[in-house]
Amino acid sequence: MKNILPEHITIELLVSYIEGNADNTAKDVVNRWINENPRNRAYMDRFKEAWINTEELSTLSNETINSDWNALLGKIDTGKQKSADNKTARLNTYRWLRVAGILLLLVSIPLGYFIGKKNSRPVVQNSQVAYNEIIVPPGERSELALSDGSRIWINAGSRLRFPDRFNEDSRDVWLDGEGYFEISRDRVRPFYVHTSDLNVKVYGTKFNLKAYSQEDIIEATLVEGKVSLETKNLLNNKIEEVFLKPNHKAIYLKKETQLISAEIIREISKPLEPKKIIVTRTIEVEPSISWREGKLVFMDESFDNIAIKLERRFGVKLVIDNEELKKIRYTGVLKNISVEQALKAIQLTAPFRYDIRDNTIIISESKPKANQ
Question: Measured between alpha carbons, how far is 354 from 338 in angstroms, rounded to an integer?
């Protein structure tokens, strides 16, 4: 466990990544480390959870933070409550108080709680509250009722963290993936959904939120009620709040990218900019929320974009080996069918062939017919 953080992954880097202040190079470094090993991802989740509970760590120097962290890793590695060694003992009381929150959360539970089943289970526990996490693997969906009467549907490949009970000031959950939310109105305690790059403040409503940490775009689609999206302005370090009306979608671009679907471009009236929230024109919300009923609705959607949804829905990998095939557009509703039946339906729009190899489906051009 001591080697969970290699030399190039410092605490300052992790803090910068969590707060959204890291540049693209730094983000790539952290993302590669997270994806190298499930234990790395789980450890990052622990760090995020601890960071949410204290913002004072960012004021410490890199040397101070990392010396405290190394001392902490020693405790985690042994799993025992040892007396501090000479190096740790020299840390003054003030510094320990400043990192006490993050230290407590990081050592309070074994790492194994973060890895494995999709079922709800405790991930962080202290004298105040217990946190639970649902992990939904590809090809599956899950539904959850919260203590305040709110309901959440969780899409494939998603993770949702939530407390067993909410506090007196606010109701907070953390999402990495996609969820459909029906939130009970509470004038005293606002409901917050925290994602990798922004927060959604809910005023009692129904909405869909797509916020996979590995994807470059976050989408929030409002069905009814009222929500706002909160993000930090990097120029003045102030929180910006953008409100959303029903039958509109808010789109947030994390970084400069060319991977913006034609569907999104069609919905917006001006170009997307990194770190900016853009609100679309009035849209049909059904394609964004149909997944919760096991239904896929496509409205003049590209095959490239459809493939991503099929992968999540059926837990397979689709590889389209032809650029022209990616541009095929399809309109239709698919429900209670297999992935092969879905592909056969799309074949009615344009000819292509597919080859199933274990859990991977290769999409390619149809072979030309031999001359008679």
Answer: 14
For CATH 3.55.50.30, the residue range(s) in the chain are: 294-364
Task: Please compute the mean of the pLDDT values over residues 88-113 and round it to a whole number.
Answer: 42
Which phi and psi (to 5°) does residue 240 adopt? -105, 140
Q: C-alpha distances in angstroms, 67 versus 49, 87, 99, 289?
A: 21, 9, 12, 47
Bridge partners, residue 208, by sequence: 180, 221
Task: Measure Cα distances from 41 to 35, 36, 347 in Å.
Answer: 7, 8, 38
CATH 3.90.226.10 fits domain 294-364: no
DSSP one-letter string for 261-303: -HHHHHH-SS---BT-EEE--S---HHHHGGGGTEEEEEEEEH
The 10s digit of each residue's pLDDT in 153-210 is 999 999 999 988 888 888 999 999 999 999 999 988 999 999 988 999 998 899 999 9
pTM for the whole thing?
0.62
Task: Note the pLDDT tens digit of each residue in 40-89.
Answer: 776 777 677 666 544 444 444 445 545 555 554 554 444 444 444 444 44
Reading the block at residue 129, the tokens are 């509250």
Residues in the chain: 372
162-166, 328-332, 365-369: range with lowest mean pLDDT: 365-369
pLDDT at 236: 58
Residue 144 has pLDDT above 50, yes or no: yes
What kind of fold does domain 116-285 have according to CATH?
Answer: Jelly Rolls (2.60.120)
Q: How far is residue 371 from each of residues 325, 368, measured CA to CA in Å?
A: 24, 9
CA gap 226, 202 in Å, rounded? 7
CA distance 8 to 20: 18
Joined tokens for residue 134: 């649902």
For CA atoms 124, 130, 131, 132, give the dihedral sign: positive
CATH 2.60.120.1440 residue spans of the chain: 116-285
